Amino acid sequence: MESSTEPVRRSLKSARVVAFAGAGISAESNVPTFRGADGLWRNYRPEALATAEAFHGDPRLVWEWYDWLRGVIHAAQPNPGHLALTELQRRAPEKFTLITQNIDGLHERAGSHDVVKLHGDLWLLRCTQCGWEGRDERVPLTPLPPLCHCGGMLRPAIVWFGEMLPVDEWERAMDAAQSAEVFLSIGTSAVVYPAAGLVQVAHRAGAKVVIVNPDPTPADELAAWVLRGPAGEILPRLL
Ligand code: OAD
After folding, report:
1. Which residue in 177, 208, 192, 193 sits closest to 1, CA to CA?
2. CA 226 / ligand 1 centre spacing (Å)
């Protein structure tokens, strides 16, 4: 069902709201999405770059790719979609949860806080030897692969295919999805599990699901409202 923004805007007032974001919200900031016509996984195979096996096989190659992506994100700015989510949180912080699959940090740069980050953070590095974790925002990174003070190799603190989601973040996400009254699914293809399962969890618990996406997704069938279009244009109209 194709919808107008006005009933959705009204439904957000005084409701418990979850915003669940994917790569599409950063598309208008010129950060490429993973799937679709210009998606990253069209030109690069995920298993060659986004798995622990790939990293152990050729850490320099994997790091060169993520270092390139860090450069792209570093040059990007949050867009009106990110800013609208920040404003929704500012208006009712105790009733709003932002869950993101994105590793780019643009939500925080837009002013959002307490973001539930299901897939980690590209600006955090973790030692494969001693487990040390810390922020490093240098662009480009040198040397590649970067090294820990213990001499171990650092990896991006993100979730690769085949890895577990961070337990605390997942619990926060499930709690929020189960108690949501309105669940906004924004700019995600809704095909990568377990994250995509949050839409079903929220729907089953009685939330009104809203999809914000220019293209169809498998989650559309659960939606009370489908808002077709770019997040940077639609989300500001929900304020
Ligand atoms: P995808 O690349 O799979 O999907 C992006 C979605 O954004 C698509 O449905 C597009 O139609 C939509 N889209 C494109 N431009 C948009 C715009 N301007 N406004 C709103 N939507 C737009 O990205 P995710 O669903 O986030 O994993 O992918 C899930 C995970 O797969 C990612 O977190 C990543 C990837 O492998 C990790 O990094 C671990």
Report:
1. 208
2. 16
